[in-house]
Structure formats: structure tokens, C-alpha cells
């Protein structure tokens, strides 16, 4: 057999053997099994990369005592997007009405929230319940949308206090704080 014909035959046999090996692997479930569906878990449906605003307290907060405090959080959202429609131009708002026993060292609240999405989205407001828990100077917000746009999704946000009005003393309690987010505002759904 001529060298060129021998090389062509060797290449053909190698290709067929490789194909048979792959077919056998597929028949045994090797590759197919590796591509089996895995649970998705929580998938972010809506998000806003920027959230900043103000929180007012009544009565004002002090350093050590933890009376029942009523708080109203207001903020402007920006950089909002929806997983299906993409980025939303303009800004929206976040409002939360909360209460809890709090001082300057531990601001733990629960209450209700409303997200007004940017007008460009065409979405109705999202309303729900939330809790705020402080850990190492970060305020962790979690909750659930109970009515309006994306009912049933999980709400999450993390923010840090950037300024305050008052010193935290009995004579000059902290009546307001400014904040900015450290993680995006998200609405997520369990697709598992």
C-alpha cells in the first residue's frame, strides 16, 4: 500500500473509532448525564444598582437606650433593569415605613415598603414587608413582595449610613440619617 493511501486509511479508522467511542459514551449517559438539569435557585428578576436617600426617626435615636423607634426610609433608585426587558431609563423611588427597638449600635426594624419603578419600565409599584438587621455597620434588608409588580419575589438590599443629624445624646438624639447602598436592590424568584 502506498504511503499516502496508508495515511488516509489510518486517518479514517481513527475518526471512526473516535466516533464510536463518543457514541458509546453518549449511549452510556456519560456526556448526557453531565448536562442534566440542575436547580437554578434564586434568579434576580429586577435590580437597581443605585439606591440612596434619607431615614428619619421618631423619637430620635440615642447611643445606649433602645426605645421603640418609628422610622421612614425614602430613597431614589437608579440603574434599574429587568431580566426580560433590560435597562430602564430614569429613576424610581423606594419608601419604607418601619418600627423597632433601636439605638445607634443596633438598628433592627420591620415594616412595609413600596418600590416605584422608573416610569420607562411601565411597571406598577411593588409593595411588601421587610426587616432590617444591622451587622458590623451594614444594614441588611430582606423581605417579600406581597402585592403589585412581581408579587411573590424576594426583596433584598444592603446599605451603609453615610451621615446623621444629631449626636445620639438625650439632648441631641439622631433624628435623621443619610444612606447609600453597598449591594444592589434586587427582586429574586426561586426557580429551583
Written description of the protein model:
By secondary structure, the chain is α+β, with helices and mostly antiparallel strands. The chain folds into two domains: 32 residues; 149 residues, AOC barrel-like. It is 16% helix and 55% strand. The protein has two helices and nine strands. Strands 1-2-4-5-6-7-8-9 form an eight-stranded antiparallel β-barrel. It is elongated, with a radius of gyration of 28 Å.
In short:
The protein has 192 residues and is α+β, with helices and mostly antiparallel strands.
Task: State the helix count.
Answer: 2
> Sheet with the most strands?
8 strands, antiparallel, barrel
Average pLDDT over all residues: 83
Sketch the topology as an H/E string, one letter per element: HHEEEEEEEEE
List how many beta strands DSSP finds.
9
CATH architecture assignment of the largest domain: Beta Barrel
Give me the CATH fold name of the largest domain: AOC barrel-like
CATH class call of the largest domain: Mainly Beta
The number of domains: 2
Helix content: 10-25%
What are the low-pLDDT stretches, counting only 5+ consecutive residues below 50? 1-38
Oligomeric category? single chain
* Strands ordered across the widest β-sheet: 1-2-4-5-6-7-8-9
N-C termini distance:
60 Å
Quote the beta fraction.
over 45%
- Cα-atom radius of gyration: 28 Å
Secondary structure category: alpha+beta
Shape: elongated
